Amino acid sequence: MKKIITLVFLLAQLSVAAWADTFVIHRIQFQGLQRVAPATVQSYLPVKPGDVLSSSKTAAIVKDLYKTGFFDKIALDRDGNTLIIQVVERPTIGQLTIKGNSIIPTDKLTEVMKTLDIAEGRVYNAAMLEKIKTSLLGQYYLLGRYNARVDITTAPMSRNRLQVTITVSEGLVAKVKRITIIGNTVFDESTLVKQLDLNTSGILTFVTQSDRYSDEKMESSLDKLRAYYMDRGYLRFEVKSSQAQISPDRKSVDVTFIVSEGAPYTVKSVELTGQLYYSHAKLMSLINIQPGEVFSRQKVLDAEKAITKLYGDDGYIFTNVSIRPQVNDSTHQVVILLNVNPAHRTYVRYITFSDNNRTNDEVLRREMQQLESAPVSSAKLDDSKQRLSLLPFVRNVNMSVKPVPNKSNQVDVNYKIEEDNSAQASFKVGYSQVYRMILGAGLNQKNFFGTGNTLGINFQHSQFEQYYGIDYTNPYYTQDGISRSFSLSMSKVDPSAAANVNSGYTTNEYDAGVLYGIPVGQEEGVINRIMAGAGYQNTLINLVNGKVSAQVNRFTVEQGRRFQELVLKLGYSRDSRDRAIFPTSGGLQTFFVNGYAPITNDSLSFYTLDYHGKWFAPINDSFILTARGDLGYGNGVHGVQDYPFFKNYYAGGIDSVRGYSGYTLGPQDSNGLAMGGNMLADASVGLIFPNGLSDNLRTIFFVDAGNVYTDLNNRGFGGQSTNSGPIRYSTGVEAEMITPIGPVDISLAQPLNRQHHDSRDTFQFALGANF
Prior knowledge:
By secondary structure, this protein is of the alpha+beta class.
């Protein structure tokens, strides 16, 4: 470009030399303009009609016009007192196409290019496009895609336009072929490599993707290597060099670390200085470091965090704990000095909410544990965020704390709410391998008119069940947070629709009830509730001639076929999850005692005990350990013979022990079909692992175990009845998805100890669609 401009200046000087005399410009005429308006070009000229054009101004005209970037060629001429400016316009981008990219989204690339004035309708700038190509390749190299390619081609279009096509070949991520650590003597290479985020290919690397190289993984591996040594006393540990050598085919990388270990250091003492608002003993109790032990950087950081939290919970949220180690290299000892500077106590001025388009502010505000005008508490701020995250209509919460301008002791707190969809009217189409085809319709609102209340009016029909129900929950029936739920339903169940399940009868059931939830306890990060309620239940058994099992027939002969009971419920729930949708830590546990008291002389007296728990524990940023447990027990007040068979527990299927057909485990009736039992025990442990596809998809490797048992002397009924047999086990993978048309749950499982009468069901799924 500089050469072109220089050449233009020389030509301009020659043309000036050709003009013997200066002249007064009466008119300026442009030749060659197509898209650029003459008035636009005129605005850039250093001369105007009436000015005297001398040889000194011609170079300025050419220079200023080239600066606009509109023209490829500029020439000056004269016709009397008319200045003629001849130009050749640069082409514009008529069409800009980006293809082949998926890792870096097109909208992001387009946005960046617009900031650099590269877009449809803008002047074509080959040099700037070349810079974008280089920058884009650099981004792919950072991701470990060293064989990526970016090609930019142009094709002419009408009206001096160009079709610009950017073709991206992203290539494959280079894999780590070899990791070499030089200079280590204390720990062997294999032990150190296990600490890194990078690894060579192995059995599980197709899931962990730790064998795929990137600069980010290289940096995190360096940090973990330093942390491993410094947590074991090697205070002077240093990584002298870290190199990644790319293979000639750019498909693999050899990684080499050169380290200097140094000697291990021990702690001589821990000293506290600064403004100690708490007793020395209380502060020292937060520090898990003893004189004489091996130095650990992580323990020092934990001590800093614990002290900061203590002060932060009392309003000193800007507390700074500076770590000043005094290292004695001759004795290999270190004195850890922790200087505490709490600054000043801070108060909350305002608590606000943003992006809550469907939820009233008061619904969110009642979850606040932190109050306005009160000292800031780090624990209460986090607890408030967690309680918001546990609302069933909230998908995510981000909290920000900002100092108030000109007020050194005040802050404003904002919670940014990402709300979940809550359809008001729905038509449901679904399929379950237990219930078969499912049709339903209803009004369902998890956040009724923005009040936080839940309303459900539902109809559902399948071969297994017909259900009609209405329920309404007010989570803040009282200002103290006592919830109240009403429910009313009627249903008809035909077990014969589920294969291999006790049949020969149908049940018609009518239920009504109310349930209260009473918050108890002040445990940090945990919501505890006592549940209490009462209800009415009316059940009618209809027998199907020729299909009734001996067990069902005996019960109806002795107890009758119509039952009316008063239902009394007492329960307890404990919720410590970090959020309701796709939690990553904490757990949810519920325990209920249900008592059924007869209203009429021919009704039943029985009870059930039910426990459900599910937990999540993060292993690192990518993997989460999860576990589930379900226990159930039911019995008649006067013995198991009075316990109704239609209240039996069942096991097997996608919600229980996967890999076995739904509802088929446990004892069989006299017809050789699963009849369930009055005792349930099943559990599952799983590993949630990254899938790299979507945040709305969760993939889990699991192992299930469980079965159903009965106190009933099942062998006395003859036929093919058997006992439950051993606990069944299975293993497999599961995918949980949140989709615009509803939740989808898919599992692939393999039974590990299938018995001869068990029914295997490897592929299981349940889905629903809301329109």
